[in-house]
Amino acid sequence: MSAETHDGQLLGAYVLRTLDPDERRDVDAHLAGCEVCRAEVVELEAVKDVLEDIPPEALLHAPPDADLVLRRALRQVREEATDATRRRWVPAAAAAAVLVAAVLGAGVVLGRGTAPEQVAQVPRPRRRPRPPRRCRPTPARAPPWRRRPASA
After folding, report:
1. HEC string of 69-135?
2. In terms of residue numbers, what domain contains 96?
3. Which residue of 6, 28, 131, 137 has the fewest C-beta atoms within 10 A of its own C-beta?
4. Do residues 45 and 99 share a domain?
5. pTM, whole model, 2 decimals?
6. Is there a single domain that holds both residue 46 and residue 35?
């Protein structure tokens, strides 16, 4: 392990004491000059100590309904988080609705107060009269190109 590289796997193996003597000497030499890796070794040793305190039975055998218990716990946490969010946003949304209503009401009152008494009526535009409908020509008046030849 050189001064430029920081190999987390080697540090984990170092903390668990699974390195061979040559690798262990290399990591010791690197740790002597690297503050970052020394801090990581301290953290890894703390994790190792916590994991050693857990009895192996807790990791091997779970109760048959452990999945159900986990789901219930997760559902309860989600519901509590949702309730907390609702408790925060409902008053804010109500206050925003009251503010919008007040602004709109003030706008209507001001608009009516500043509007002229009589409003000039604008004449409606006249429609153009429709052209009369044309009837279809009767066969006697049909153009020559549409006339059917007389049958003999």
Report:
1. HHHHHHHHHHHHHHHHHHHHHHHHHHHHHHHHHHHHHHHHHHHHHHCCCCCCCCCCCCCCCCCCCCC
2. 63-107
3. 131
4. no
5. 0.37
6. yes
